[in-house]
Design brief:
elongated, mainly beta, 9 strands, 1 helix
């Protein structure tokens, strides 16, 4: 999967015996599930820009780090409180996300 740039469905990684997974070319994915890979210590998706579905990271007992690239941009959502977009960026950063967050034109004062 090293050269794959797009996966339209959900990629599920659930394998023992691999300690590191890197998908350096993956830019777009339908969803990602990394579960029950007990030897996995890290995974990286540095080029990821678009994820259409959810991200599930569960039951990886040796996992110490993961990096999901891409940026977060939340703009022009009149009913969405800008503070929600900022909080999401802060949560992602605290979890090890390496992207850049930006927002504006959303509802202010809430």
């Amino acid at each position: 999967l090293q050269g794959v740039a797009k996966i339209t469905g959900t990629l599920t990684i659930a394998v023992d015996g691999i300690d590191t997974i890197s998908l350096p070319s993956l830019e777009e994915i339908g969803g990602l599930s990394v579960q029950y890979s007990t030897a996995l210590t890290s995974f990286t998706l540095p080029a990821l820009i678009t994820m259409g579905g959810g991200l599930v990271v569960s039951g990886n007992t040796a996992l110490t780090s993961f990096t999901v690239g891409g940026d977060l941009s939340v703009y022009g959502n009149a009913a969405l409180c800008n503070s929600i977009a900022i909080a999401l960026g802060n949560q992602l950063t605290a979890a090890g996300w390496s992207g850049t967050g930006s927002s504006g034109g959303n509802k202010s004062g809430c």
